[in-house]
Specification:
Blueprint lengths: L4 E7 L4 H16 L4 E7 L4 H7 L6 E4 L2 E5 L4 H12 L3 H6 L2
Parallel strand pairs: 1-2
Antiparallel strand pairs: 1-3, 3-4
Length: 97
């Protein structure tokens, strides 16, 4: 089995949209089973890491260490991004680090 995709949701204490992002991410990640792992990143506790990825506001979502969404994506967009990461098209493979 290939390694799992890591999705990180960057959140801040007291951010109401962050809670919605975590709920949506958990729901989407669950639909991919073991292929997707996720974690919450507290931007206060991990500020240097968040800044290194380009996070400027919360919520934000990174996929495999690359900033993928700034703001709250809809579940369909998140699902598409994860599906593409798990099953990349030939064009995407060429552009992936």
């Amino acid at each position: 089995m290939a390694r799992a995709v890591l999705v990180e949701v960057f959140a801040a204490p007291g951010c109401p949209r962050c809670g919605r992002a975590k709920t949506a991410l958990a729901r989407v990640a669950e639909s991919f089973g073991d292929a997707v792992r996720w974690r919450e990143v507290d931007v206060v506790a991990e500020l240097d890491y968040a800044v290194s990825l380009g996070v400027r506001a919360t919520p934000a979502i990174a996929i495999d260490g690359r900033l993928a969404f700034t703001g709250l994506p809809d579940e369909a967009a998140l699902r598409r991004a994860l599906a593409e990461r798990l099953n990349p098209s030939p064009e995407t493979k060429e552009n992936r680090p």
